[in-house]
Design a protein that fits this description.
CBS domain Like, 2 domains, six-stranded mixed sheet, four-stranded antiparallel sheet, 15 helices, 13 strands, binds adenosine-5'-triphosphate, ATP-binding
Length: 362
């Protein structure tokens, strides 16, 4: 993706860290008129520039929380703050111009070109035509779509993945302080989805928006989230933690069950190979036939490399320099030793051992 960082946010606003706001949910509650309590007394803080994922079973109130932040749904009680500003009573229309919103299936206007779709909010804000044109081209570039090629097309002339990228570009158009994303990648097939997630992570590294993203997909949550909030019915916050903590130390039986049988494997995907895990290098001249793993790679990738090579040990490289040896058992034992007490009979590292040992070429 051709990414051009913007340093002067007043010239072409849009991609500066300064344009992200912290969010604080302070005891928010939503009771619908029929008596359903969708969210009960939820408090949550999201740092400026942080990507937080809300996850939980269907009907636990994820979308309600998201839509309370941009006031598409009015909280019954509680407060929502952007930085230190209480927005619970702010004008919702003006508020929504500061908050980008990306939904499943994007919701592009079918009879408008891609450029016109991306320029929707800037037009509402009364920007000049030149400024809108420049901004639209910049945003399309940023999400990996050539403005010359795609700007004049209509939504039906794009693939699902391309439309999803346009949705992200449109949400970023007026340099929102917050981006809300409700199942943004779920309408595309798994391969496109993974690619969009990777592109999105690169984009976020560039724009550093404060993002709250709702998903059903734990892998997506683990891949994208700086922190993950697990909700159970009634918008109850079960745990709010970085992915590795959530997988390694589920705080409640609900979370343990929710993160499921393969949490050991998922956890490996978010844990890097560090020097502390390494055995000393083999004696001079030996070990050159071992598979190699870069320092900092995920333990999951390291283990996959070991299994592919049918090897018990890999040489770990810092750049070109070998710095130690990672053994298969070290990876698996690490998972065992860090597993939480497991009275519910859920997964432990020993399950990992079993999966790996049974799946391994003899
Ligand atoms: N307008 C409404 N009136 C009454 N109840 C509602 C209304 N909208 C949502 N609910 C209920 O509030 C609860 C939370 O809904 P919400 O859409 O926030 O859940 P969710 O976690 O986003 O679900 P999903 O993952 O299935 O999209 C559900 O029990 C739902 O039935």
């Amino acid at each position: 993706m051709d990414v051009t960082p913007t340093t002067d946010a007043t010239a072409v606003p849009g991609t500066s860290a300064a344009s992200a706001s912290a969010i604080r949910l302070d005891g928010i509650r939503k009771q619908y008129p029929d008596g359903t309590v969708a969210v009960n007394e939820l408090s949550l803080e999201v740092g400026a520039g942080e990507l937080v994922v809300l996850i939980g079973p269907s009907g636990c109130g994820k979308s309600t929380v998201l839509r309370m932040i941009n006031r598409l749904i009015e909280p019954t009680s509680g407060r929502i703050l952007l930085d230190d500003e209480d927005i619970t009573r702010a004008d919702p229309v003006r508020l929504r111009r500061r908050i980008g919103y990306v939904i499943q299936n994007v919701g592009l206007f079918p009879h408008q070109t891609i450029s016109a779709n991306v320029g929707t909010v800037p037009r509402l804000l009364g920007w000049s035509r030149d400024r809108i044109r420049n901004r639209t081209a910049e945003l399309l570039d940023l999400v990996g779509l050539d403005p010359g090629q795609f700007g004049r097309r209509y939504p039906h002339e794009l693939s699902g993945g391309q439309r999803q990228r346009v949705g992200v570009a449109r949400a970023l158009a007026a340099d929102p302080v917050v981006l809300l994303m409700d199942e943004p990648f779920s309408a595309v097939d798994p391969i496109v989805r993974t690619r969009l997630q990777e592109e999105f992570l690169r984009l976020q590294a560039e724009v550093r928006k404060t993002i709250v993203l709702v998903t059903h997909d734990l892998d997506e949550a683990v891949r994208l989230g700086d922190r993950i909030a697990v909700l159970s019915q009634g918008g109850r916050l079960e745990q709010y933690a970085p992915p590795a903590t959530l997988l390694g130390e589920p705080a409640t039986p609900f979370v343990r069950e929710f993160v499921g049988a393969d949490r050991g494997i998922r956890r490996l995907a978010v844990t890097p190979v560090t020097r502390e895990l390494l055995a000393p290098l083999p004696a001079n001249g030996t070990g050159t036939d071992l598979p190699t793993v870069p320092l900092g790679a995920s333990l999951y990738d390291a283990l996959a490399g070991l299994l592919t090579a049918a090897a018990d040990r890999a040489l770990v490289l810092d750049g070109d320099r070998p710095v130690g040896v990672l053994t298969r058992h070290r990876v698996l034992d690490l998972d065992v030793s860090s597993a939480v007490p497991n009275p519910g009979g859920g997964p432990t590292g020993s399950v990992l051992h079993q999966i790996v040992d049974e799946g391994r070429p003899q």
